[in-house]
Amino acid sequence: MRLVQSLLVVAVASALVGVGTMTPETSVAAAGAGLVQQGPLYKNPIALQLYSFRDSFKANGVPATLAKIKGMGFTHVELAGTYGLTREQFKAELGKAGLTPVSMHTDIKLLASPTDSAKLLDDAKFYGVQYIGNAWFPHEGTFDEADAKAAIAAFNAAGTHAAAAGLQFFYHPHGFEFAPGTATRTLFDMVLAQTDPKAVKFELDIFWAHHGSADPVALLKAHPDRFVLTHMKDMKPGTKKDWTGHAPDDTSVALGSGEVNVKGVVEAARGTAVQWHIIEEESPEPDKNVPAGLAYLKSLAAGPGR
Fold it and tell me: How far apart are CA 262 and CA 212, in angstroms?
């Protein structure tokens, strides 16, 4: 029984990853073949944030971990470090595993610098990614309006540098940005309103938005042109929400098993600028949760979800 379940998960993952927009013609053909009974929820292909397997990289090494990720069905990934290898070595291992990077996370202060950004942008071009961004704006204590103003300046500068290099800058809100700024808007509203809408895009981590008491579905609908990537991550029911940007790793659970409206996000993203859904697991059980999350996403593409 366990073997059958494992084979099913692999088959589901392989069928899902890299799925793009399905045309009316292919939808009809697929339905005729008994594969789907309705149009798919996806227009977006699926990638994996490599941070999900950070412990495996350390314990088992880069080649073995990348091979495992490929075996789950992934063809595209988001980068977050090279785990002790040079960029040349890491790119070579990605190539051997058949994995293509589409985006990368890096240091916002360096990326905002007219001089220091050159090395990071060169790295992005070396890997062939289109998107380069940051997932945590550094600040002391509680993120406040002064921090938001500093972030706005840094994001606009980073966006300008990336655009000049033919790349797209993005920022990944981490929950603390959704704290109230005024009686009617959050600090994230302030950041979004005062950054260049073309040079500064966003990666919506649906876990962290939810953790900061924001609604990821509403964010996508309200700002359809500003989010180009998502981090698909679910939250353990009952997790305490706040604006710290911190939560225990085990509050990250397999997609579809938590309290985040994953199905709603997938549906809402279809009509937006979102190009990639990127699965990220912060839990200590990515070997179990990543395939389970892929299976859940496949169920959304095949028919009604939860």
Answer: 16
